[in-house]
Amino acid sequence: MPARRRSCRAARLALLFGLAVALPAWAQPAPDDPLRDDVLGATMAGEYAAQAGRLDEAIDWYLAAARASGDDIALAAHATRLALLGNDDRRAAQALALWQARAPRTLDMQAAQAALAIRNGRVRDARRTLETMLQDPSGAGWRFLGPVLAAARDPAVSARVLRQLVASGSVPDSLPAWLSLGEMAQRLDQPALADEIGARIVQRFPGEPRVALLRARQLRLAGDIDGARAILVDTRDAARLVPELRYAIAMEYEALDEPLSAEQVLAEGPQDPRTQALRASLLAQGEDKDALGALYEELKRGAGDPNPMQRLLLGQVAEYLEHHGEALDWYQSVPGGDQRWQARLRATRMLHKLERGDEAYAALRALQNDASAIEEFRRVAYLMEAELRAEDGDVEGEYDAYTRGLAAWPDEPSLLYSRALMWERRDDIPRAEADLRMILVADPENVAALNALGYTLADRTTRYEEALELIDRARIAEPDNAAIIDSYGWVLYRLGRKEEALVHLRRAYTMQKDAEIAAHVAEVLWELGRRDEARKYFDEARKLDPDNRSLLRALANTGA
Fold it and tell me: What are the boundaries of the signal sequence (predicted)?
């Protein structure tokens, strides 16, 4: 019996007996494979292939299952989405045709149709479909715009379609829809379009504070700091009437790198522990020791009542003030509740700051062995010990903390993951891989471990095909996760698919402004000979995190 046929029979047996097996690499269905006509068997084979990270095989099996089913809408829809995720336009079109033949034109179906059109450069078709979606009676069509525009291989195409949609008059008269369009224009690095959308929003929704906040953000991103600040000053009056706006305004001030102005906004309304904690954090960020001291005194006046949350907050403010001894006293005075365990953890850090390392480690050991403590905090105590040992340069102590933690909680994902990062930091890639694989043995669909292992193999080894399979498994689970999209782009680059890699890396960067992603974009641009554009992204990465390890490696690799 041919090997491929045996694999299909194995899939049937696994289905009957509930066995979780993965199909081998050669399990892609042959044209004459009878399993193609077995809906359940083909579906299970597709799922096994997806779990193994073999996206091409998964697409083929699910498409076969959809065809064999005759009328199953869900299978056709799933095959379409998988094919779009796998950049397989031919099979995406085939699956979409099945879906369209079996079901009414739903918004998600139209979104798949528009995504396929925009990916293939059929901009007019994509725009027409999107216009129809925007006019859907449900008013929810705009929610699909982001994923559709992200399907374009060139961000300039996405920007052109967005500009045409704004001009067409098809956008519903809904503030969330228009705000979403403004966000998209900003992510696509289209300040002129963002300004145009902002002007339309102001015209359509006069006097709406959220509109003013959007305009302030647009001006900030365009570099008009004075203009953004002026809008925020005007909007602060509205915050007095609508307290919920205080947090949004404060966030904008913080984005302007004005934490003290953000704190003043929060100080002008009702106070609760959350607001006070945010104020303390902002004052510490702004290094205003006087104002932080005043807040500390204000909080101390209410400390007669041994409220656990109040005592914990006092410890945190004292810690911000670098009053480590007082912070230790407050933490040790937290009387009970879940705050008690957090306070005990923070107290160990204060002991370490006070150069009482032996006491800090003894306190951590006591918490690790306290059967009455919440398990989460006992586990975190091992992570805290490893972190403090690393700060001390105690290589063996850091390893020992992880070893003891894993003895208490065998195969605990958080401990294995952190230890894997330790190994990677020490350039011991085999051990990093071993720990990440241990996570995947217990939880094969652990997205963080799949992505971390895939990225590590792509970045630190030459096992690119294996890395791609792992990253594809993570992409199937979370297709819109910026970190996973970055990993996917990076492994494509390592495979030599530079232009394709750039599309995904740019998309990841529009979703998350991160130094590592910016460094990846820059390195690919450099390799493509687009040096001036690459330098721009290197500069952005330096502003975000000048000590980022990926950035430093990229600079060394390129000589930029």
Answer: 1-27
315 is a domain residue: yes
In whole numbers, what is the pLDDT of the chain averaged over residues? 87
Q: How far is it, in rounded angstroms, from Cα 468 to Cα 471?
A: 5
pLDDT surpasses 80 at 17: no
Dump pLDDT digits (tens) for 437-472.
Answer: 999 988 988 999 999 999 999 999 999 999 999 999
Using alpha carbons only, how large is the chain's radius of gyration in Å? 27
Beta-carbon neighbour count of residue 255 at 10 Å? Answer: 14
Please report the pLDDT score of residue 6 as a whole number.
31
Contact 71, 102 (CB under 8 A): yes
Residue 13 has pLDDT above 80, yes or no: no
Range of the domain at 330: 272-344
Q: Residue 238 domain-assigned?
A: no
Whether pLDDT at 18 is above 70: no
Residue 454 lies inside a defined structural domain of this protein: no
- Statement: residue 236 has pLDDT above 80: no
CATH code of 282's domain: 1.25.40
**Overall average pLDDT of the 473-500 stretch:** 94
Q: How far apart are CA 385 and CA 521, in angstroms?
A: 36
Phi first, then psi: what are they for 497, rounded to 5°?
A: -95, 70
Cα 312–Cα 314–Cα 318 angle in degrees, nearest 5: 120
Round to whole Å and give the CA distance between 480 and 478. Answer: 6
Structural domain count, the chain: 1
Contact (Cβ atoms closer than 8 angstroms) between residue 89 and residue 119: yes
Q: Are 83 and 66 in contact (CB under 8 A)?
A: no
Give just the sign of the alpha carbon dihedral 487, 492, 184, 231: positive
CB-CB neighbours of 2 under 10 Å: 10
Residue 165 has pLDDT above 60, yes or no: yes
Instruction: Give one DSSP letter per residue of 430-481, joined into a string.
Output: HHHHHHHHHHHHH-TT-HHHHHHHHHHHHHHSS-HHHHHHHHHHHHHH-TT-
Residue 292 lies in a domain: yes
In whole angstroms, give the CA distance from residue 127 to residue 36.
Answer: 36
Q: CA 205, CA 93: separation in Å to the nearest integer? A: 40
